[in-house]
Amino acid sequence: MLIKNGNVIIFENDDVVVKKLDIKIKGEFIDKIAENIEQEEAEKVIDASNKVVMPGLINTHAHIAMSIFRGTFEGCDLYTWLNKKIWPIEAKLTEEQVYDASMLSIAEMISTGTTCVNDHYFFSEKIRDALTKSNMRAVITRVLMDNDGEEASNSRVNEFIHLYETRDVNNELITYTVSPHGLYTCSDKVLEIARRLAIKYDLPIHVHFLESVSEIEDIKRLHGNTATQVLKKYFDGIHTILAHGVKLNDEDIEILKTMDCGIVHNPISNFRLGCKIADVTKYIRKGINVALGTDGQGSGNNLDMFETMKIAALAQGGIHENEERIDSKEIIKMATINGAKLLGLENKIGSIEVGKKADIIIVDISPKLENIKMIPNNDIISNLVYNTEGKNVDTSLINGNIVMENRNMKFIDIEKIISKFAK
Ligand SMILES: [Zn+2]
Predict the structure, then answer these.
(1) N or C: more exposed end of the chain, with fewer CB within 10 A?
(2) DSSP code of residue 84
(3) Cα 410 to Cα 403: distance, rounded to the nearest angstrom
(4) In a 10 Å sphere around its CB, with 0-12 CB exposed, 13-18 middle and 19+ buried, how is residue 277 labelled?
(5) Residue 78 pLDDT class (50, 70, 90 cuts)
(6) CA of 138 to the centre of ligand 1 (A)
(7) pLDDT given at position 81
(8) Ligand 1 centroid distance, CA of 61 (Å)
(9) pLDDT score of 169
(10) 64: CA distance to ligand 1 center in Å?
(11) Rounded distance from Cα 300 to ligand 1 centre (Å)
(12) Percent of the chain residues topping a pLDDT of 70
């Protein structure tokens, strides 16, 4: 396959640049990147004139079956929402509902430019079925917690082991994490089980971490130490993906720097739940890897990573009065290569480079009424962050497969899903 004449987003050393280039894809891989590749070399040619060709976006923290919870949050804080709405409803969800809700979310992700998602949920075999049918790249898990008792906790651990042991070793699109829900919802016993599973299977940890202020005291009460000390005690030496990290102080940052971990910044969910906002400019300047996530649609509204990029960029202006804060180029990296690093997938995805897997999106920036916010297009990268929406994504490739072309979904019966939810 050949993608011709696109404005290609390339990472050069520490910089992000836009170049007119052709990209040749052979099977799953990016095979050649050059100024002019002859059409005869390709079976299929995609004309990307007036379009941006960029790495697929990586959503590093989501709960993909939570599309079913869109619009349930009004009038709550985090704890009230979890205790009074989410957990009681989740206890009644059926496998079929989780499958359908996952399909809706996968369609939402693919149609808005996300090509890889890091999930955090349960009924995970159904989620895996939906991902496999859609040819979506994902990191999945079965979330562990025991704030509702020992018996439920044991069955969660067994479900995780079953999920992992029944994986298709030939399907490299789906990988796994071990995921305690949070340090405030897991006892020492569950954290120890998570540590052992991560070591046994050589998997990363994915955990909610210092999202809201009430967590700080709850963790001290439950574990007798600060959140970061508890994290270090159990997961030092294990690659760890920390969702949120809103409430980090300077001491926390110094401890995290000694660990193999990074932060998922979920600005829309944090704003929506009244958690304030993480100073990710500071985290990045101090050398911590920060990527972007949407969280579930219950708190994050939607899975459009372009919206998340814009809000992430703007939010830093709410806490930094000068120009030291992160810019559009850093935001693009947070949504792509930083995400790949955080998921341990940087050798495969996250950038357009020869030898990497072809996870690529093509974004329509052509001068027309639908794109009036981008005219004149003085700075493509700035326009990508501030004036592009998920619906501008025209074509998406995952692992060299076209999963959406000219906004037609290839593996998902979108009419069927929409009509099911309309009912
Ligand atoms: Zn979350």
Answers:
(1) C
(2) I
(3) 5
(4) middle
(5) confident
(6) 16
(7) 87
(8) 6
(9) 96
(10) 10
(11) 9
(12) 100
Tokens 């700075």 belong to residue:
379
User: What is the 37 CA–ligand 1 centroid distance (Å)?
Assistant: 43
**pLDDT-based confidence at 222, cuts 50/70/90?**
very high
What is the spatial distance between Cα 184 and Cα 217, in angstroms, rounded to a whole number? 9
Per-residue confidence band for 114, with pLDDT thresholds at 50, 70 and 90: very high
Q: Separation of 142 CA from ligand 1 center, angstroms?
A: 13
Nearest to 212 by CA among 273, 165, 262: 273
What's the pLDDT score for residue 299? 83
Provide the pLDDT for residue 350: 98
Ligand 1 centre distance from Cα of residue 226 (Å): 20
Q: Which pLDDT does position 85 carry in this prediction?
A: 87
Q: How far is the CA of 21 from the centre of ligand 1 (A)?
A: 38
Distance (angstroms) between ligand 1 centre and the Cα of 274 equals 14
**Is the peptide bond between 376 and the residue preceding it cis, with omega within 30 degrees of 0?**
yes
Residue 105 Cα to ligand 1 midpoint, Å, equals: 15
If pLDDT is split at 50, 70 and 90, which confidence band does 87 have?
A: confident
The alpha carbon of 13 and the centre of ligand 1 are apart by a number of angstroms equal to: 32
Separation of 62 CA from ligand 1 center, angstroms? 6
CA of 373 to the centre of ligand 1 (A): 32
Q: What distance in angstroms lies between residue 210's CA and the mean position of ligand 1's atoms? A: 11
Least-confidence region, from 23-32, 252-261, 290-299, 343-352: 290-299
Residue 318 pLDDT more than 80?
Answer: yes
Q: Cα-flanking dihedrals φ and ψ of residue 405, to 5°? A: -130, 130
Type of residue numbered 363: V
Q: How much is the pTM?
A: 0.97
Is residue 97 within 8 Å of residue 68, measured between CB atoms? yes
- Report how far ligand 1's centroid is from the alpha carbon of 121 (Å): 9
CA–centroid distance, 11 to ligand 1, in Å, is 29
**How far does the centroid of ligand 1 lie from the alpha carbon of residue 29, in Å?**
32
Q: All domains of the chain, ordered by start, with CATH?
A: 2-55+352-410 (2.30.40.10), 57-342 (3.20.20.140)
